[in-house]
Each structure stands twice: as C-alpha cells, then as structure tokens.
Prior knowledge:
The complex is a heterodimer.
Chain A: E1 2-11, E2 14-24, E3 29-33, H1 40-47, E4 55-60, E5 75-78, H2 90-100, H3 105-114, H4 130-142, E6 148-152, H5 160-175, E7 179-184, H6 187-193, E8 196-201, E9 204-210, H7 211-218, E10 221-227, H8 234-244, E11 248-251, E12 257-260, H9 264-274, E13 278-285, H10 288-296, H11 310-313, H12 357-365, H13 367-370
Chain B: H1 3-15, H2 18-45, H3 51-55, H4 59-63, H5 67-88, H6 90-97, H7 101-135, H8 147-172, H9 175-195, H10 197-203, H11 207-211, H12 221-224, H13 231-255
Protein name (chain B): ABC transporter permease
Keywords (chain B): Membrane, Transmembrane, Transmembrane helix
Pfam families (chain B): ABC2_membrane_4 (PF12730)
Amino acid sequence: xxxxxxxxxxxxxxxxxxQLSFQVKPGHVTGFLGPNGSGKSTTxxxxxxxxxxxxxxxxINGSPFRELPNAQRHVGALLDAKxxxxxxxxxxxxxxxxxxxxxxxxxxxEVLAVVGLQDAARQRTKGFSLGMGxxxxxxxxxxxxxxxxxxxxPVNGLDPEGILWVxxxxxxxxxxxxxxxxxxxxxxxxxxxxxxxxxxxxxxxLADMGTQEFIAHNSAGFARVRxxxxxxxxxxxxxxxxxxxxxxxxxxxxxxxxxxGLELPRISDLAHAAGVRLWELSPxxxxxxxxxxxxxxxxxxxxxxxxxxxxxxxxxxxxxxAWEDEQAAPEVPRAAFFAPPPPGAGxxxxxxxxxxxxxxxxxxxxxxxxx
Amino acid sequence: MAFSAVLTSxxxxxxxxxxxxxxxxxxxxVTVAMGAGLCAVVNATFDTMPESQQIAFDPTQMxxxxxxxGQVAVLIFGAxxxxxxYSTGMIRSSLAAVPARGALLLGKLTxxxxxALVVGLATGFLSFFLGQALLGEHSTTLGxxxxxxxxxxxGLYMALLAVFAMGVSMMLRNTAAAIxxxxxxxxxxxxxxxxxxxxxxxxxxxxxxxxxxxxQTVSSPAVTSDAPYGPWGGLGIxxxxxxxxxxxxxxxxxxxDA
Lengths: 371, 258
C-alpha cells in the first residue's frame, strides 16, 4: 500500500506537485493519469525517495522508501527505460542490480524469461529499442518479487502485442494481491488496465475513484431528438412535454434537442403522446477519452496553438429553450460530447465511391466542368 | 543490506563496461612506455647533462616520468566510473532498488580504488624494472634506500588520484565537466602557477604536486629545497584534498535529488 499525504514538490517558483494525497491499495491496478508535465513522474520519484518532497510525505507499507529494510524485496519500479548504462549487457545490468540485495543469479534469468528478453540477454543495451528497454525496466522491477510495483509509462514504445502483454502482466500481478501503480497519459489504455484511477493535472488531484465510477461520472449519455421540420410548433410541444416528464432539455444549433434524464423509449412515448413526429432520436455517449480531456483541459501544461481539441471544449451557443425558465446549470452542457464526425459523409470512414459511376457524376457537377 | 552485496554489485558494474579496461590499460601502458623511452634517452645522453643534474639524478623517479601522461588516463577512469552513472541514469535504477546512498557511494569508491591501486602497483613495478634495465650503469635496485617506498608510492598515487577524480565527478555529476576540470587542475594549473615566483609556492600544495613527492628517492637540496614537506608529508596533503573531494561528493549525493 502506498500512501501520500499532502505531497508537494516545488522547483523554484514552479510547483510540480501540489498538495497531493492519495492511497494505492493492494490487489488492484491503480492508474495514475495526467497530461505530460502534470507531475506524475515527480510523484513517482518522490515515492521512491529519489526526490525529496518540499512538504508532505509518502510511505510504502507504512514507512518511507528510504527507511525500508531490504527495499528491493518490497518495492520494484520502472521509472525510465533508458536509465541503464548502454555499454553493459542486459543480463549483467540486471545482475548488478540483483546483487545489491543478494538476489540469486537464477532469478535474473527468470525475469529475463518473464519479459521475453532471454534472446537479447547478452546484447549491449545501447542497441535496444524503446520497447526492449521497457521490458528490461519491467524485469528490473520484478527482480525482488516485490509486493509493491510502480511503473512509469510502461507501454511507451511498445507494439500492440507488447501493450497487451503489459496489460495482462499488470492485471496478473494485482490478482496476486500486489499493489500495482501504473502511470500513463493514455486514458484509453488505463480504462482497459486499471481498476482504480488517480487523475492529476498541474500537480493537483482531479479525481480518485474506481474506473467504472469514473466512467459513470464523466461520460453521462444524452439523447438527441429532433421534431419534424415541417411542424413548426412540434419542437416547443416536444420540449415542454419532455421537461414536464423530468428531463433536462437543451437546444442545439441545428434545431435538435439534447435530452438528459430520460430513457430513449420514454422520449419516444412522450413524443407520441404529444402528437409530435420525430425525425431523429439517437443515443449519444461521450467517450472516456473525451471525459478525461475535458477534466484535464485546464490542467494541460503544453498546448499546441493548433490544438485539435479546441473544438472539444469551445462552448457551443446552446440556447436555453423558451419553456425552460429557470437558469439551471446544465448537467451535460457541452458540445464536447460529440464524437468528432467521421471523415467523409454518411459515416463511411473513407471517401470511397459506392459505385463506379459516382466519381464521374461528381466530376460532371463540379464548377470547372460547367464552364 | 549487507555491504558485501554492494561490493559484489559494484564489482559486476565496473568489470562489465569497456571504459574500465581501456582507461586503466592506457594508464599502465602509457606510463611504462613513456618512462622506458625517457630512461633510454637519458642513458644515452647522461654524460652531456649539466653536473647539477647529474648529482640530483634520481633513477627511480626517472623511470616513473611517464606518469605525467599516465595520470590523465587515471583521472578519466575515476571520472567515468562515477560520471557514467549519472549520464546514463543508472544511479536512479540503483537508488530505486536500494535507497542506501552512503553505502552505494562507499562500495563504488572501494571497488574502483582497489582496482586503481592494483593497476598502479603493477605500473610502478613494471616501469621501475623496465626503466632500470634501460638506464644501464646509472640504474638503481629495489634494495636501495627509499626505492621500494617510491615504487609502492606509484600505486598509492594512482589510487588517490582515482579517488580524487571520483569525488570531483560526484560533485559535478557530469563526466565531461569533471574531466575538463581535473585535467586543468592537475596538468595546467601547476604550470601556470610556477610561471610567477609569488605563486610558485602555492603549486606545491596542489594534490598531484604534493602527492608525487612519494615517488622521489633522492632528497638532494638541488631538487627538493623548495618543497616544504617530505614524501609522506606530501602524500598526506594529497590525502586531505582527496578527503575533501569525497566529502563534497557525499554531501551532494545525500542532499540533492538524484
């Protein structure tokens, strides 16, 4: 179990980690999420006693890492896949670390086999790819068969097969009752791997909850419903009916309504009862990635001026409909919930002609040809 | 954690990188070869040398004259042993496995110093025997007064120089910076200081100037009248420098974030 209390690290005027308190419990994979530069690595380094906290403290199984007797048997860590002497062979690198705690040489060959590096054991590590470096780092962490494991961005540089392997390894280690703490900036990866999430941004705690809970909290769905355009009063009648039934209704720029708090069949029934014809009734669910980006948007350290995410959090002119008199804070207010439209019309992922004549006909319609 | 475990680990580390063998081999070969060459030249031209030089001639020290260049390789060895831990990030891998900084530092110093001492002693004896063989009638033997002390002194000098380099490198955490500073300190600063009379005396107290007194056997007034210390006194001054560098290195390691 890892416990941080009021953990703070300042570098001069810059605060890398700010009053961070959390617990990492055994038997779970705990994901540590945050954008680049949010303080994940600094926190990991403080857990391992490499950096001294400016204030606050962090303990592993009740005592600070630096005071753990025989630390390698309790805690294993992968911090930086490149933190090896490139001139040394993989096996001797592991051996030198193992010997620090009197771990037998046999264990070195065992962990090399576990991470699948047995064939590269005699190679100098400077020739290693990033993925091989990550595997070597994971092997180092596993050497002492520790109960507490920390991995900083372990899937960086791994191929899909490697990512799947890391995911299964983390889950297996946690299932054995170990404490597994994995940092990542990839929400999608953590959603698959972690049972519990600790999200930080600019060094501050943004969320500390189970992955399922996080999904439920942060990716609430909504329904898009559109009355027939041919019936001008239909929209207002529909909105009134839905609001009365307890739904929250917001108007979208294209005239559709965004409804939360009502199930789709119920919306259909209400529309039918109100005598409104519907042209659209569709379920929408924001992806976890979007929820994460929305949560960390204000906490992103480095932002491109040409940031494609800008559209995700630009407030759309969502009009409060006439029948909504109270100025309530909308639960799901943002255009951020739209998944980006697929390239190409009609939802097909690529612009492909559906029949051979299509390209020819569009060419005929193009203005150049009419000239 | 047992200290023997750290020693085993550091021994594995030091013997599995190429820089260890090439720096130490260079130190030995350059010192022996240069010393032998100069001894041969001196033997051929001894009669043309001024009388004052003939009186003050120290055949033992003559055979160690290659040390002037050999010591650079020793400094590079010391700087690389420590500096590569930082430049590669290996120090973080080690500290993440074992948080005992003092023990890690002491283990590394012990292993590297022992290795430098062994190579230094080999250098001393090889240089001595080859040099004396080439000096012909001007040569001396191990049985003469102070000679054995001077030959063993080569080993002590090289070991202390290696520790000094490790201490400086531990403070700077950077191989290239440590090597530049060490070389200017050991090779260039003595020359600059001895250009002016007022600063010449200061040069005597530089670590390598003081330490090399151990490798002389003739304390003729013509050569050593200026130096205010004997061979062991000089080595003592060098030990103080080395202790200061190691203490500085320890403070940096224990205080600063790794």
